[in-house]
């Protein structure tokens, strides 16, 4: 079962109520009817559909249970798709979870190497080696990176300077090379 099929099935109120009733421990038809708050004429087709689709399974004579394998399978498919999407959105594994679509969504706190990699990525994407910039321009170039709310542009500028990724000298900013040097034009 795909996550979409799971969602579509449970978007039907009677199916969702029956599924939840069984998931909360209702196993026999009277227990399911009582927990779901449905008439037998509403619950019976829902039970049948949930059995046919594999979300419910027989758990002995006259008893039903959630088919945990089906639910886990749908969750596994969703997890796999999310991982594929994360790779597609951010191919560099060092930046995954921190940078998404040109936006800083989170800043690593406990991993100094990851933090440096993320800050270097932001700086190398926003600025050209050898060029110098005034403070306002730097802040304006960093503002789109802050749309994710991890930090504001002024704080990000300070992090880049403190992290040794940008150099500030007499109000002018320049990208610092990984070896610590700067190239002035």
UniProtKB/TrEMBL annotation:
- Domain (DUF2087) spans 104-174
Q: Supply the InterPro entries for this chain.
A: DUF2087 (IPR018656)
Pfam families assigned: DUF2087
Query: What is this protein's record name?
Result: DUF2087 domain-containing protein
Give the originating organism: Micromonospora rubida
